[in-house]
Amino acid sequence: MALPGGPGVEVVVVHPVAPVPRTVPEWEAGVGTLPPAPSSGPPRILAGDFNATLDHAVFRRLLDTGYTDAAAATGQGLVPTWPMRRLPPLVAIDHVLTDSRAGAVAVQIHDVPGSDHRALFADLRVRS
């Protein structure tokens, strides 16, 4: 993605399979193959339905490569995003991750009619 007057940014959309008992190995492999946070090249943002909470070990290993969770960084990390068909939603499985060259200024979570997820909006600043 090109930013006006700034560096290009790589945006990776994420949606591994749900970790139900028969697909846990596939889910772990899907999250485990996401690219680590880069230290050079364009800044990278990973965003989407990770089907993982901050307490999943495979998700924490991804964070340990150098990503920051936008919601957690702004005090919103435990605000649930799923499932919307059950009120209140129970878990925060949707995330926006930034490498060290970007960061969240604010995060908002919105109900989306007809969706089983709440929308996570992250206001990000990318350093050049």
Automatic annotation (TrEMBL):
GO terms for molecular function: catalytic activity. Residues 12-117 form the Endonuclease/exonuclease/phosphatase domain. This is Endonuclease/exonuclease/phosphatase domain-containing protein.
